[in-house]
Amino acid sequence: MKNAPAGFTFSTVCAGIKGTEKDDMALIAVETPARWAGFFTKNRVKAAPVLYGMEKLQSGSPLAAVLVNSGNANACNGLDGMTDLRQLCRECAARLNVPEEQVLMASTGVIGARLPVGKIQKALVPLVAGCGKASLEDVATAMMTTDRYPKWRVSRLAGFPDVTLGGVVKGAGMISPTMATMLGFFVTDAGLPTDSLRKISALAVEESFNRITVDGDQSTNDTVLVLDGGEITRDKKRIKALEHAMAKALNEMMCALAWEIVDNGEGVTKVVTIEVAGARTVADAEMLARSAGQSPLVKTAFFGEDPNWGRLMAALGAAGVPINPDEINIKFDGITLVKDGRFAGGDAERRVADVMKNREFTVTILLGQGPGSYRLVTSDLSVEYIKINADYRS
């Protein structure tokens, strides 16, 4: 693929998992097994590919390929789910001529149905043969379920024209912090050591995918993988400079794609950034931001373009952290709607109502208690969201 990181190839096919003629499988392969970082759902109900990925992350084995399917989560299938996964990873590895432990699988879709192993086995033949014929955009498209559009990026590292970073994500519903419900794959030829790659990736995930919410529901399949197939340099000065450049580039790419997940959310008509500042601690600020950003009443007010600041005040009070209502200030795109816990007046309400007509806006909550701050990207809650999820398995 043009502009892809050196050594990486991609392929997509239609296996018929979703009963359509659209591609629903993807393969990410790397010529030299890659060092990698992995991040997985914190839901206690974990899909088979998540459990397998966590096992491989602990083993320290490099990765030669990631097999991806949409339309079936391979979750809540007991031992059968793991047996199916291992069989498919083994067959994919054999066709790629790599060790079985160097192949991971990631799945997204309906929970509780067994993988259609026969369909996937047949699809492996053209999938492996097609390595190099697809792009990151094709991979992003094959991963989609209820997503409205594919989400992907490719960029060069600032100061390192020989280093490329690419990323794809999938996600639209069951989106909640503590690993937003999603699949995300990031590939590079930077040549960073494993420890550096994992440290940088963990910080970027925390700043991006852990700070978005659509509906507050957490998935069984959340997976983010960052693969580096570049040769590690022995130049310590270059490694340090690479670490700095990669940290910035990966953070920017993940934040941009995380924002798109919310923008692409099921039935979403508003993308709202909630910024809490002046909390006693960062932990307090996070709890307050989540309480406001996940409140159904707040989210429906966003949908209705209603400056119902009382709902925000109530959500903040329900967060479980000490606050002084008489010191709270709330602003919409810089326009003060609540001053020292009181309504700022009709003129302010009219101006905020105009702000809320925009697809994107920022709600700033100032507490005046301390240095703690937190940012969360959330959405409204629309009638369309209910329709999509009421009919999801139909």
Q: Give the radius of gyration.
A: 22 Å
CATH top level assignment of the largest domain: Alpha Beta
**Shape by Cα distribution:** globular
Order of SSEs: EEHEHEHHEEEHEHEHHHEEEHEEH
Q: Care to count the β-strands?
A: 14
Supply the number of structural domains.
2
Number of helices: 11
Helix content, binned percent: 25-40%
Secondary structure topology:
Elements: E1 8-13, E2 25-40, H1 48-59, E3 63-72, H2 78-96, E4 103-110, H3 117-129, H4 136-142, E5 151-157, E6 160-170, E7 183-188, H5 194-207, E8 223-228, H6 236-263, E9 271-279, H7 282-293, H8 296-303, H9 309-317, E10 329-332, E11 335-339, E12 342-343, H10 346-355, E13 360-366, E14 372-379, H11 383-390
Parallel strand pairs: 3-4, 7-8, 9-13
Antiparallel strand pairs: 1-2, 2-3, 2-8, 5-6, 6-7, 9-14, 10-11, 10-13, 11-12
Descriptive tags:
L-amino peptidase D-ALA esterase/amidase; 2 domains; eight-stranded mixed beta sheet; Ubiquitin-like (UB roll); six-stranded mixed beta sheet; alpha+beta; 14 strands; globular; about 400 residues
